[in-house]
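Anyone have tokens for Potassium transporter? Sequence:
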Amino acid sequence: MAGRVEASLTEGESTIEERDREAMREFEEGLDQPMDEEANMLKNMNKEKGLSMLMLLRLSFQSLGIVYGDLGTSPLYVFYNTFPNGIDDSEDVIGALSLIIYSLLLIPLIKYVLIVCKANDNGQGGTLAIYSLLCRHANVNLIPNQQRSDEDLSTYSRTLVAEGSFAAKTKKWLESRHSKKRSLLVIVLLGTCMMIGDSILTPAISVLSATGGIKVNNPKMSSDIAVFVSVVILIGLFSMQHYGTDKVGWLFAPIVLIWFLFIGATGIYNICKHDPSVLKAFSPTYIYLYFKRRGQDGWISLGTEALYADISYFPLQAIQLAFTFFVFPCLLLAYCGQAAYLVNHKEHYQDAFYASIPESVYWPMFIAATGAAIVGSQATISGTYSLIKQAVSHGCFPPVKIVNTSKKFLAQIYCPDINWILMIGCIAVTASFKNQIDIGNAYGTAVVIVMLVTTLLMVLTMLVVWRCHWILVLIFALLSLVVELSYFSAVLLKINEGGWVPLIIAAFSLLVMFVWNYVTVKKYEFEVHSRVSMSWILGLGPSLGLVRVPGIGLVHTELASGVPHIFSHFITNLPAIHSVVVFVCVKNLLVYTVPEEERFLVKRIGPKTFRMFRCVARYGYKDLHRKDDRFEDKLFENLFSFIQNETMMESDSNYSNSVYPVNYTQESRDELISNNNNNHDSIDNNMVMFSSMVDYMDTMSFSQNITVEEEEEEEDELEFLKTCKESGVVHIMGNTVVKARKGSLLPKKIAIDYVYAFLAKICRENSAILHVPHETLLNVGQVYYL
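Reply: yep, here.
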């Protein structure tokens, strides 16, 4: 009997304790409500205007220099890399041409231009853009800073899936385990790292192949001269990057236009003069005969023929128009012309491109080839800047300096630090290999792995985002994987012949990205778990237990709700604080951009006497923190606007719930006291929280009893804020040092104490990113043990 009574008492105490926790949780949420209402008020319903035909043609022309320069230079080296040891049979040329034709048809045209490019995120392409789409449609983001108010953005596109559908099952499977989310991120980062490797290899092989034409016309010339010329061109190319892709695009697009016209016309000339029968290569049977005849050699040559179309930030219609009606036909003619020449001149397998050019146009073609190689290199360099910017916004790369180079196009950017790293890598690869065979093997490895990663991400996108029927997804996956796994099997056989280069580059880049993301996620989780109770802060009273001095303190935090640990550290170590406190959260969202009118969300924290606000500044991965953005001024403009709107709405009696988020009545206060008195075992643990809540309720009760006469005597809050702003604004930021806990495993210690510490030391600080003047900055030091 005693046991039953004891069990009943324990059960009752547990129920009371749970009810107390629920009451505290509701109280905390009431003190610091989400910004759903404010976000909905700011929602911009205006849609972007469509492109005119004139603008579409202009962008199609410009895309030649930015998107297709890389693919356009492939005729310079493809046949040489296909037959590095010579041509034994003319039929091998026909088979290789057939393989090239259908590679161009299946991979760049059908897969990328017609399918993959449709998975762009409002014009942003690449593996991280597809990852952003997936994160908006499924809860797979590792940083749990998503809020309901973010979904009200006009640029936050998302479709809901029906319960029980295949898309819903796929979504549930992705969200079921943390390991699946982590694996997805690793796959995305692997593709991103391979693209970085591609941006080092593409300029090297393109420029080296183009300058190799000097030796063709002068056989006795040393190959070192061609290498030297290539290095000089690469230095000049990377030195021009700060002018931006907008200006460079208009300069390079005419060069690529002339290049495609040249190779197309030369192809027609060679077909008609040497062997029109090469057109039979359009029959896929010659691919079968090619592999049947060459066996392993055929598979080995396959890896270096992977042709890749960059996913860029130009409009989809412009990319499709340029490739389908101009680039694709010119490339087909160029390859058919080279094949026709090689059928009758097998000895020129090493220099098929330049040897097939009519002597009268040799030097103009050489100049055009060199210019096209430079433009081809520009394509991957520009894409790498975009990838790095996306990686920084996703918390997967250390903050680096990013400059917007165009007032018209926000996506056209320049990264000085990344630019010089790429230049050093290109020069090192060019000077060390000195030939396009090994560089071609390395290039093929990078491209094939990127294609495989893209296929895997596209399968998830088609299921979760597009909600395609699983049979269509299966057909796409099978066709893509059959071709790409064939390429991959050939790549594996060439790892020791240059294929190891992109693997080393990717391994180093992946280490940097993974460590940075891991510590970023852990830091955010630490911030969430160690945030200060709002009830404790408000329990200190309107003065916060300190002297309130004139001025405004902007407390920067990664949290969009709650009080950061840095603030409690600040008020417990300093004797005074500013009259107005604003918690500022600069938040990167999984959208390409946030319209300026929707960027800031402002909310009051607690009663007016506390003078505390929260401001969330939201940015997309395409947005930049430019110096002329007037971040601080815009923040205060939105804060003042919030005060004005609040004042106007206070005349409505129904607005009282917006000023005071929860109705704190005397009955609810007494009930909370009663509940805590009944639970003696939990009083010690919750005393600080409970006392703070009671004090706050008393404050609320007092503020609600203010008479009309007293309200009229209160100083106008808007004027008070402006006066405080004139007195001075201070940005309070955390100077955080992250260390591994004692007893952590050795890999974790190395990752946090050495790798992350080094990266944090050399990357840009938040004050530099937001352009905070040094004289208004106050750093609060603290150490996080993860």
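The CA atoms of residues 245 and 489 lie 36 Å apart.
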